[in-house]
Structure formats: C-alpha cells, structure tokens
Amino acid sequence: MGEKCCSSSADMKQIVKESYGKRWAGEERCCDGPEDTLSMVHRALISELSPREGMKVLDVGSGTGEAVLEIAKKVGPKGKAVGIDFTEEGIAKAQKKARSLGLDGIAEFRLADAEKLPFEDETFDAVVSECVVCLIADKQKVLNEKARVLKPGGRVIMHDVINWAPMPEAVQKDPKLYCGCIGGAVSMKDYKYMMEKAGLADIKAVDHSDQIRKRLNTGILSAALELPESDKALNEIVDFLRRGGIGYALFVGTKPKN
C-alpha cells in the first residue's frame, strides 16, 4: 500500500515513534478523523473526567500536552496533571507550553513508555488517553499499567478507534494506516474485555462511529486502491468496509475499592 509492511510489532513501534516525533515537531494533528468529531469526543472525555481542584490525573500518550494543560488549569494549585509520551519532540513542546502558561508546577511531562509507566501503584485519581491504545501492539499490557497506577475508586477514561469486522492483514501491516490510528484498531467488545481483564469494573462504552466512520474508511479505501486488482487483499479490504469497517468509541472503567 505504498510503504513496506512491517515484519514485527517492534518494527511498527519504532515506525510509530518516528512518525509521531515528526508530527509533534510540526504540531500536526494525531489522527485523520474530522477535527470537529475529535473535538467532540475530547469534550466528552473531559466531561466524564470532570477535573477538579486537588485531583491527580495521568494522560498516557500526551503528545504536545494540550489535554494535560487543560486539565492542569482545573486541578491546580493543589492537584497535578501528568503527561507521558515516548517522543522527545512531544515532551519538549509540552514543557515549553507549560512554562509559558505558568503551569510548570502543576503540569508535568515525562518521556516514558505506555507499556511501562514510571509511577508507583495507586498514584492517580484518573488515567486518560486519546486515540493512543490503537497505536500499541500489546494493548492488554498498557491497560494493565493504567489500572496499576490508578487509585481504588479511580477511573480509566479513554477514546479510541475501533473496528466492526476482523481487520484485514494488509491493513494491520501497512505503516501509513497503522500510524493513522487504523491498522491497530480492535473491536469495542475486545476493549471492554481487556479493561475487565485489567481489573476494571462498571465498563461503559459510548459509540461515536457515526460521526467519524466515513472519513476513516475513505482513507482505508484510498490505500486499498493502490493494490493490484488481482490481489486478494483488495477484496478482503472491500469486504471489511462493507461489514462496517472502522468506528470510534469512548470507554470508561472503574478500579474497585479495596
């Protein structure tokens, strides 16, 4: 599909890191979805979070820090909003913004891997992420880590790309589609199962597919049309799209109190 496919999850992880480092250096959007739709789902996440003074919130995959800074304004001065990202470019931009807004004592940014969070158990009142888990091969490990650093009674709140049919291998292995938040998507059912396996309860999923499906699926079709017509992958992709293709959802899970 225009770029060489990856042979391993480690290869894809490095490609994602390099891709997002370049995006954050240029302050580009992280996803191919419509800006108004992503803003709407972001607002839904913030509303669900309901940040207030004194809360300690972690944003996994914080990019250039916009969500962390928004939360920091509401949890300060006694609370803290922390963002982790695996790109130096994202962290540098976020730290610069925090200083310019006088929030560097409330907003904190660390270079770290979502699969191994650098925090003690039961540190945060809430853990959020926005279109991040779809970019990580070992989704269960990331969700386990989110639950681990969450205080009892705290919540994981995230929105992410989902699929409505089994993902064709050609889409999964295409670097452009993977970095575009599409190739690594899993179903709503899978996300709910993994959140429960991570120890979260009262799982809530809100489907936002209608607002974003057309744009994301158009991107898949455009990539598929680059394949030779005889390639069976094209037929698999067309069938995938006919069965619903890609969607989007907001998820919430609570860590039970001891």
* Helix percentage: 40-55%
Sheet with the most strands, sense and barrel status = 7 strands, mixed
Low-pLDDT runs of 5+ residues are 1-5
| CATH domain class name | Alpha Beta
Number of structural units classed as domains: 1
CATH fold-level label:
Rossmann fold
Task: Give the total of beta strands.
Answer: 7
From the spread of the alpha carbons, the general shape counts as globular
Tally of separate helices: 10
Strand content range: 15-25%
In the CATH hierarchy, what is the superfamily? Vaccinia Virus protein VP39
Measured between the Cα atoms of the first and last residue, the distance is: 50 Å
Task: Report the C-alpha radius of gyration, rounded.
Answer: 18 Å
Structural class: alpha/beta
**What's the mean pLDDT score?**
89
Explain what you see.
The chain has 258 residues and is of the alpha/beta class. It has one domain: Rossmann fold (3-Layer(aba) Sandwich). The chain is built from 10 helices and 7 strands. The protein has a 7-stranded mixed sheet with strand order 3-2-1-4-5-7-6. Helix 3 links the parallel strand 1 and strand 2. The radius of gyration is 18 Å and the shape is globular. The relative contact order is 0.16. The N terminus is likely disordered.
SSE topology:
Elements: H1 9-25, H2 35-49, E1 56-60, H3 66-75, E2 80-85, H4 88-100, E3 107-111, E4 124-130, H5 139-148, E5 150-163, H6 169-172, H7 175-179, H8 188-197, E6 201-207, H9 209-224, H10 232-242, E7 246-254
Parallel strand pairs: 1-2, 1-4, 2-3, 4-5
Antiparallel strand pairs: 5-7, 6-7
Helix pairs in contact: 1-4, 9-10
